[in-house]
Amino acid sequence: MKFFSFVLFQIIIFSLLIIESEQRRQKKGFLKETSVKEDVEKKGLLTKNIKHSTITKNAFFYYEETFRKKFTGETLGYVTPWNSNGYTYSLRHAGKFNYISPVWYTLSQKNSGVFFEGKENVNQTWLKSIRKQTNTVILPRFLISITSRNVELTKIRNTIIDECLNQNFQGIVLEIPLVTGPQISNEIIDFVIKLAEDFHQRKMILFLAVQVYPNLQENHYSSLKRLSSVVDRFSFMTYDYSDSINFGPISPTSWIQNFLYLLNKLEIPNQKILLGINFYGTNVNIANSKLDHLIGKDYIKLLQEKTPSQINWDSKSEEHFFEYSDKNEKHIVYYPSLLSLQKRIEISQVFKTGISIWEIGQALPYFFDLF
């Protein structure tokens, strides 16, 4: 009885947090998130020529069939503990996601030992809710942060397996350095292979999150060919193409396609590829090369404050952007639009890959109509 009361108390608290979050949004001038009978495609919102007022007017309306899965491939969505909207959206649109990856755990090197963090991030109330209402597979992300090769990889592997068994997880998304890039470590590759084999013996699955570099070099990804026989899916970070110095688009479509051709050359099965799509944007102050990341609410606030006369379509990258000045300093802002997202979905459909989204709590609510 005490356990039931505790669970009920957690559910009530979680519901109150969602209500409080919605109230705070409305106080900041945002529209209430509301379901509607027409999706964004029927409204004609997938267009190059779009005004800031069209975005602010429509962004908080989402199609009423929230569990409809429009994208035919597999979809992985990341959620983070620092952005509670992700928990809300993952429950509302759970039917759209084959996999949800809560970003909870970090294993880092401390002197010669291993430091395990993240147990306090585990949201048991959300876990119970999403497991109850859907068959979506929960795969928490484990970030392995190591700075040298003198680290207890066996201890890391055992820690991951123990936590998965204790929490009844069906697998994980693993992010670990030196898997790809200019300094590939065979020791790390062996670690991933052994962990995948241990998982498969327990009927669990292992996804690998892989950074994608702006300068695509085949030798930086040669390890993937060896890993593709044991890793169940690769979650490729096909974003962060630009930075504060080389500012510009976040994820040019030509770059994405060239990377997919590279993977095909390496004989990575398309069904194991999850193409990364960003739900965040960037705001670069050109005067001092300062880059700030934008999530949906920041973007709407910026549109309301700056009311840009024109939102431009970059035909090369197939992304929307606008410019403004603040204290005589020029800024350039890139943030996903419905059309830019649709272009990336179409690439995924052509190559017959899945999609991974970083991260769903950063979205504008009408994004989900596309998936």
From TrEMBL:
Residues 1-23 form the signal peptide. Residues 73-371 form the GH18 domain. GO terms for biological process: carbohydrate metabolic process. SMART domains: Glyco_18. SUPFAM superfamilies: (Trans)glycosidases (SSF51445). GO terms for molecular function: chitin binding; oligosaccharide binding. Keywords: Lysosome, Secreted, Signal. GO terms for cellular component: endomembrane system; extracellular region; lysosome. InterPro entries: Chitinase_II/V-like_cat, Chitinase_insertion_sf, GH, Glyco_hydro18_cat. It is found in: Lysosome; Secreted. Belongs to the glycosyl hydrolase 18 family. PANTHER family: CHITINASE DOMAIN-CONTAINING PROTEIN 1 (PTHR46066:SF2), CHITINASE DOMAIN-CONTAINING PROTEIN 1 FAMILY MEMBER (PTHR46066). This is Chitinase domain-containing protein 1. It comes from Anaeramoeba ignava (Anaerobic marine amoeba).
